[in-house]
Amino acid sequence: MNSQELFQQIRSKRSFLCVGLDTDTEKLPRHLLSEDDPVFAFNRAIVDATAPYAVCYKPNLAFYEENGAKGWIAFEKTVRYIRERYPEIFIIADAKRGDIGNTSKMYARAFFSQNLVDAVTLSPYMGRDTVEPFLGYEGKWAVILALTSNPSAADFEMLPLEDGGRLYEKVIDTSSQWGTVDNTMYVVGATQARMLGGIRQLVPDHFLLVPGVGAQGGSLEEVARYGMNRRCGLLVNSSRGIIYADSSERFAETAAAKARELASQMAGLLEKYL
Question: Would you say the C-alpha torsion 211, 215, 221, 225 has a positive or negative sign?
């Protein structure tokens, strides 16, 4: 999927919602625990409920890897289910990989050779050879961590440079030369929304993956105001605010309502800023 195809999905659904599948086994509705694969049963219900409003799903690999082989099986079943039932929906593996070139090549092969996902989140700390192997697959994306919402982001990302800029700006400026708007996007936390204007000067046409709306307190209105470009250019992620909104047997119905509410807000923002 390229950036134009992604934008077409956004226009079709009038939504730029990414639903994060951060599926914690300790937070699953109790009635699912008797299922053969409770994680997949939960994910399948969430996907079916939210697919009318989502253009992207983002399973967070940490929540699957902590369950060992069973967790990876649940992850693979989940992404294959999305592929089969909702092939138009973009899938990001939130893996935050980042290693030397030969190791990165194996990570890229693991995620892309079987067409499991469309994109993988990456830490660019080790430089170009961390990212480049992921750019060699047509229609696949590297999602590069740039400016995150966590409290300790300032430890490195905000460090001032001799030229007057910040480290995260150097990361964006340098890495934007490695790929294109069709295979590279950036993670920018919603709680950093006011900095999106400056980021847009560095990468005016790239897509940005923006977590932190909802449970983390980021403002959707501010994200759209400062971050939207002529093709929207945003995938705004919500995880806990949707998937854990209800722990009863009506959890999927409640998730659908929360996703629908966010998508409705997004439709208004597309009308306002696009």
Answer: negative
